Amino acid sequence: MSIARKQPNKKTFDIRQLILPISAILIVAYFLAPIVWQVLTSFKVNADISAIPNVYIPKQITFEHYISLFQRRPFALYILNSAFVSITSTFLCLAVGAPAAYALARLRLWSEKIILAIVTIVTLFPAVLLFLGLLEIVKALSLGNNYLALIIPYTAINLPLTILVMRSFFQQLPKDLEDAAKVDGYNTFQMLWQIVLPMTFPALVTTGILTFISAWNEFIFALTFITRESMKTIPVATAQLSGASVFEIPYGPIAAATVLGTLPLVFLVLVFQRRIVQGLTAGAVKG
Prior knowledge:
Layout: H1 16-42, H2 46-49, H3 64-72, H4 75-106, H5 112-124, H6 131-141, H7 148-172, H8 175-183, H9 188-199, H10 201-217, H11 220-225, H12 234-239, H13 251-271, H14 273-286
Helix pairs in contact: 1-13, 3-13, 4-7, 4-10, 5-7, 7-10, 8-9, 10-14
């Protein structure tokens, strides 16, 4: 009696296995396409930029658009202006928002729900609707062409988000550490500064980068409240780039300015990439 040999199971091709990688590739390509286009345009000569049909890959690489940014206008100063305003507002947001979030997470306040409701409403409120009111305040306080006209609104607008994000992290910290610190004689400020904040450093980095990007990219307030050329920020300076004539649109310099304005953000994210992932992962797990 012969025993029939079992035939090995042949693996069947399942098209569903390709859906996820193909979808990921398409999503990445969708978001990277404008960035790649801007980078390529910044290195194209004017003939390739205005050519019909479009020249996707530059036939000749030039750095003329980057050089012209620094020769015709003080673009390095614009970068420093944006960095100063963004860093200052980010620092103020974290310095004020972290203690406020800790108080809402740990202290039992009778008005806690009311405060959280107000903070949430302010977070959802469009910042552009505050423009006219802020304009009157800037006029009344004579803050025109003053960095405080940008730092104060940026801090106020981003502060509610900072409080909400940091509060969610503080709520998930074990209270045993804080109880032990109280036994060792730590007061609330020492406990926050020496124990709680170091444990939530990834959350601080993530929140700080979100605040920094928001302040770095803001346009309406910077356009209106700052008119002095030496105090303008990158978004305003980029929008006000002009060509050799009234009818010429400087696509090359605009693309170069966009790339230079994006590089600090990319560098910031790459430097703190591990901290950002830790903060987002912890927030997702705790949420």
